[in-house]
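Continuing the batch. This is chain 6 of the set; chains 1 through 5 are on the previous pages. Same settings as before, nothing changed between runs. Recording input and output for traceability.
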Amino acid sequence: MTFMSDQPQIARALAERNYTEPTPVQKAVLAGDAAGRDLLVSAQTGSGKTVAYGLAIAADLLGGAERFARAGKPLALIVAPTRELAIQVQRELTWLYHFCGARVVSCVGGMDPRREQRELTEGAHIVVGTPGRLCDHLRRGRLDLSELKVIVLDEADEMLNLGFREDMELLLEATPAARRTLLFSATLPRGIVALAKQYQMDAFRVEVRGDEQGHADIEYRAIRVAAHETENAVVNILRFYEAPSTLVFCNTRSAVKHLQAALLERGFLVVALSGELTQNERTTALQSLRDGRARVCVATDVAARGIDLPGLALVIHAELPNDPEVMQHRSGRTGRAGKKGVSVLLVPNSRRRRAEMFFRQAGVNAVWAAAPQADEIRKLDQQRMMQDEVFTEPPSEDDLALARILLAEKSAEEIAAALARLYRARLPAPEDVVDPGPDRGGRFRDDRNDRHRPRDGGFPAGDDGAPREPGKRTGFRRPMEGGSVWFKANVGRRKNAEARWLLPMICRRGGIAKGDIGAIRIYDTVTEFEISANAADKFTAKVQAPDAENIRIEPLPNGPQGGGAPPSKDGERGAPAPKADRKASKPHFKKRQQEHLAKTARREGDDSRFDKPDKKSEFKGGDFKKPKFKKKKDKHRNRSGG
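Output for chain 6:
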């Protein structure tokens, strides 16, 4: 099937854009059964639906002619949920009908309404807009729909979710009864079906499923991550893929602000999109992505609607969406026009089952893996450096002259080291991220730190949450099975040592798993920690030399030394120091404790206190007399005349 062979001007526009074969949704709306009928189309983002309904309504608008007549009252109305999507649709229809002489006008919120009024007064063949602004022009008499032939509701499900049902109904009721209605929606909930029954006549239903959803070129990857390491995982994923442009999704505006600030601090070129931005700010942010001044965009679901980035190769779901349809909407921003794309979901263990349910409902086969590690990223950096244009482009005469001067002053190794240092300086440093492993027993999960307990109700060996043996100090871990060996690192509280970054550093330096590490005790200048005896030899061999941060690790043959100062308030693995010990260290508490013990001893040896009469009653011969109660009772009788 070829594109619109009976419309030469449109076929010419398609040829210039290298459109040769229609997508499945375009085939469906151009089929003979759909000609001239109302359409109810279910198709995902990125399936080519804008061109699809642009082709489907061409015959209604042109009426057999090759060009449009003089512009007057609009012949077609396209309603979209967001400003970005409306502007994108305007651009698509402008080039599609360019050789037909069409005048396409946009009416969206955030733009100058007086300019839109002038454009509507001058005449338009097609009007594209958002529901609120279109209804505003309609109420003020600026938008005349009396000659409308076609109305298209694009992403109708999203307009319902945003609360535009009344606006859509107002626009539909203001159009002629003989108009043609095309309703495009990613999903078909009850609200959409009810809207179609009320405002469409004998609608032809098109539903694009399976591999025809426009997502065949998207690779889904699910990344296991601890809940508190989401930010670091985003950093490593961005560094691992180094995509020309990336879209990172969060669920709330506050999360967008926080993640944007964190990425800016690490040196990424990042912009943010949320509902609180003005249209000019949104336009500036998108333009910086298109021209390469920014490479990462952090956005909410609604703010990302209609974003058209041709080079978008990576989508990151920093927070899981609410349903699989939203997941596909997000992912549909990439993998377009035959290009490959990657959609990465960060999944804490507490949300793994939810993510797997999303994949099943969406028919997606996702690859599960851990977050990219810092060592992997550094190896990729070495490969990318050798392929950088600094090495691939031929040097100029000035470059060669400077090279000779440098070689005369410095050795080749020094020059190469300086070049490597300059190359790394412009790259954000990768983070140490620990793989939390698969979920084992989600019912007993601790949401705060992703620790897991076995299904039998017990605790893993060395778990800080395990019950302590009688007489054993709380806040310290049980002895490791098979024995352990203690080590010392030359970093402590004075250098801001914390268990949350010491733990992944120890795993990385020694090439061991988190389960091989026992207690971690942080002191003023040093940190002492224990390693299981099975992994001690391997660990000792790998930590001989200090790392880039000059942290030295050495064994403690005689066990923990105490570091010359009490452990930090983080205790072991961040656990608080024992409450009783903290109190016991205070002199005034010791004095009060001694007084309390002496008083208790005196009471235990003296029972005379039980012989004291009650202040409110007297015990005489087995009868209780309550003077106060009796007095009140007599007073009550006197008042009542008894």
